[in-house]
Amino acid sequence: MSGHPEPDGKGGARAGMAGRVTTATSGGIARVLIDNPTANALSERVCAELLAAIDAAEADPAVMAVVIAAEGRHWSAGTDIRDLELPDATLALAALCLAVEGCMKPVVAALKGNVLGGGLELALCAQMRVAAVNTR
């Protein structure tokens, strides 16, 4: 088992890692949802889960596009400051950004609320960005 989200046989996907990122596939669209209250900070763990979700969506022939969205008021306030002292904290975000940028399927960042620091960096790596009126 790779730890990546796997198809559930019903057109959807199971989350491969219990955590802060969930994936659901419907109509050829993989919806990757960040849920790391309160600001959807991109911790090393969240970055790893997002990377696994992007890799799984890219490998799934039923997926035609990926949308990265977020629970709560904000898309992402950036890197989790609690992780800044970890040696690989910036490497996790860099690997995620490279995967999003290099994904062979279109990746759309569905933005809302604050999009700051590493969150903005991730959004800029997507091929498209769609912003709610409250996006800052």
What does this 3D model show about the protein?
This protein has 136 residues and is an alpha/beta fold. It has one domain (6-131): 2-enoyl-CoA Hydratase, Chain A, domain 1. 29% of the residues lie in helices and 23% in strands. The chain contains 3 helices and 7 strands, in the order ββββαβαβαβ. The strands form 2 sheets. A 5-stranded mixed beta sheet has the order 3-4-5-6-7, covered by helices on one side. Strands 1-2 form a two-stranded antiparallel ribbon. Strand 6, helix 3 (117-125) and strand 7 form a beta-alpha-beta unit. It starts with 5 loop residues before the first strand and ends in a 5-residue tail after the last strand.
Main traits of this protein?
136 residues; alpha/beta; 2-enoyl-CoA Hydratase, Chain A, domain 1; five-stranded mixed sheet; two-stranded antiparallel ribbon; 3 helices; 23% strand; globular; disordered N terminus
